[in-house]
Design goal:
Blueprint: E1 2-3, E2 9-10, H1 15-19, H2 23-32, H3 39-44, E3 46-52, E4 55-60, H4 75-91, E5 98-109, E6 120-129, E7 133-141, E8 147-159
Antiparallel strand pairs: 1-2, 3-4, 4-6, 5-8, 6-7, 7-8
Length: about 160
């Protein structure tokens, strides 16, 4: 774990720690500082804001460091925040000893994302949770509530044993 001052700590936990709690409890531990925040959050300026079972909200700040050659924030940045939100809402449903991975993701870009847009909000919601797969969707909004992009994701759920 890397301490970056204040109370923010970035890093990863061991597999044993990850599966010792159910998914919702683990993610709440990221919010309350018991667990480190994943390193991508610092690199991409994407941060978990709210969490409940089957729903999460992230905030992000697209900046000029993510611009593509035509002066628009690269679609990979929007894909990343959507992937994080859609995957984390599935993570909230995991039982102790379960893990998951993304099988498929689809993103639709609705409006260009520019650094001048300010902070964005991304919400992920669970659509279906079965024994082996889960589906979710995500929506990325600007500060005025206009949709920038949306997507869907399928995750595979499996025991960690």
């Amino acid at each position: 774990m890397v301490d970056l001052g204040d109370s923010l700590k970035f890093g990863v936990v061991t597999r044993e720690v990850l599966v010792s709690e159910d998914g919702l409890t683990f993610l709440r531990g990221m919010l309350d500082g018991r667990h480190p925040i994943a390193p991508y959050a610092d690199t991409m300026d994407i941060h978990l804001q709210e969490i409940e079972e089957g729903r999460v909200t992230f905030a992000g700040s697209p900046s000029k460091r993510y611009l593509n050659p035509i002066g628009v924030v690269q679609g990979g940045w929007a894909s990343a925040i959507l992937d994080v939100a859609m995957a984390h809402c599935v993570h909230t449903t995991l039982k102790r000893g379960e893990s998951y991975t993304t099988l498929e993701m689809k993103i639709n870009f609705v409006r260009p994302i520019l650094p001048s847009i300010g902070k964005v909000r991304c919400e992920g919601r669970l659509i279906h949770r079965g024994a082996r797969t889960a589906t979710s969707d995500g929506r990325l909004f600007d500060e005025r509530g206009k949709i920038l992009a949306h997507g869907s994701e399928t995750c595979m759920i499996f025991p960690t044993d």
